[in-house]
Structure formats: structure tokens, C-alpha cells
Amino acid sequence: MATYTQERAAELRENIGAVLNAIDSAAGPSVKPRLVAISKLKPASDIQALYDAGYRHFGENYIQELADKAAILPKDIQWHFVGSLQSNKAKLAASIPNLYCLETLSSIKVADLLERSISDRPALNVYLQVNTSGEDSKSGLSPLTQNRDELLQLALHVKRSCPHLNLLGLMTIGSFESSHDTSNPNPDFTCLKQSRDELRRKLVEAGLECNDLELSMGMSADFEQATREGSSSVRVGTRIFGERPRKN
């Protein structure tokens, strides 16, 4: 077990408690989103401290770091991978038995590699990543509302050809400007909701069973706004763990 100091554990519990309180206030009577604690570049002991306090959903940006932490931390942690997954790392991702969700699927090639690599584990949940802001610096597919159908084609492929993948929903990373302007509805979140609704309609039209698709939107800067706008899952890192060291 990764060891931690009681002082650090108390700090982490206070931080995550403040985030949960903010989520409660933002959600009001609405359903509250899942909180995924993003522990990128933080030690496994930090995750262990929050695990011992009762938390189970954690996320990482680098697949090798996730695999290394998953190997030494409790096996009932539900891991989320929130970074870009290169095709040569798909087999590694599929080998992590308690990887709960890959939040960044954006290509048929990676979907097929995951499908071929999954064997002795339940179906892997996936979100399809949507680049709602259109920024070149962000990964993801074009929104379905822009008369482009890459998102639909990937969703159809997952539903029809990847029985070991479960299409759980859509994910986006909002632009910096939108994420720091709380005076108006976030256009990236509005866009993701519109894409979700249109995608579900088209999947049903295609004769495919389609439950309500989740929305993974909201990070440390904008999780409260995302909660108010109907997010199913928020990804919070620095507000819980503090500033991260630079990656070497």
C-alpha cells in the first residue's frame, strides 16, 4: 500500500470536500455529476489517501502512469483515462483490468485496436471526445451540429463492430476563454449537449439501442458551471491535489 502522512491526507480530504460542496451547491435539486479526481503527476500515496477516505473514481493523463499506479493501488479503483491515447498504447490500456472509462476515443483505428486487445474483462466504457471549441491545440472530433459526420460514423462503428466497447457518452474540454467566463452559458457545453442529442437521435434512427448518453465536461476552472449545465461527470485535478510539478 502506498503510504502517506496524516497531514497530507487531511489536506486532500478538505480539498475534495470543498469541491463536493461546490458541486452540491451548483447542482441544487438536480442529479449531481460523478467526481473524477485527476491525479496527473501526483504520487500514488495521494490516491491511496483519498481511497481510504472512500473515493473510487480517479483519472490520469498518461497511460503509462495510469498502468504503473493501477499495478500498486487497490483493484477496485475505477480509473478514467483522460489523455490522448496513441494507437501503440491501446493494448496497454486494454490490459488494465480496472480501467473504467477511456474518455478520449476519437478514431476507428484506436477503437479497433482496443476491441482486438480486450479479452478477459467486462466491456470498456468509452466517451467519444468532441472538439467543441474548434481549437487546433485540442484533440477530438468535430461536433455533429457542424454538418460533419465523423462523430456519428465512430459511434456507429463502436455500436456495430466493437462488442467489447460500451458507448457511455461524449467528452469535451472547453476553451480557456469560455471556461473562465461564468456570465453566460458555456458555448462548448451547449455544443456538446446538442451533439449528444443529435447523435442519440441518429443512432435510434439507425435502429440501434441507445440509452441516455453521458456528458463528461467540466474541469477545475469550470466544473461548477458544467454541473449547472447538466454534466454527468466532472474531472477535477488541481483543486484537489494542488499544482502539478512539471513533467520531465
Automatic annotation (TrEMBL):
One Pfam family it belongs to: Ala_racemase_N
Taxonomic superkingdom: Eukaryota
Q: Which cofactor does it need?
A: pyridoxal 5'-phosphate
List, for all copies, the residue spans of the domain called Alanine racemase N-terminal: 23-245
Q: Which InterPro entries match?
A: Ala_racemase_N (IPR001608), PLP-binding_barrel (IPR029066), PyrdxlP_homeostasis (IPR011078)
User: Which Gene Ontology MF annotations are present?
Assistant: pyridoxal phosphate binding
- The keyword Amino-acid biosynthesis appears for this protein: no
What keywords sit in the KW lines?
Pyridoxal phosphate
Query: Where in the sequence is N6-(pyridoxal phosphate)lysine found?
Result: 40
NCBIfam families attached to this UniProt entry = YggS family pyridoxal phosphate-dependent enzyme
Write out the similarity annotation: Belongs to the pyridoxal phosphate-binding protein YggS/PROSC family.
Function text: Pyridoxal 5'-phosphate (PLP)-binding protein, which may be involved in intracellular homeostatic regulation of pyridoxal 5'-phosphate (PLP), the active form of vitamin B6.
Q: What is this protein called?
A: Pyridoxal phosphate homeostasis protein
Q: Which organism is it from?
A: Tremella mesenterica
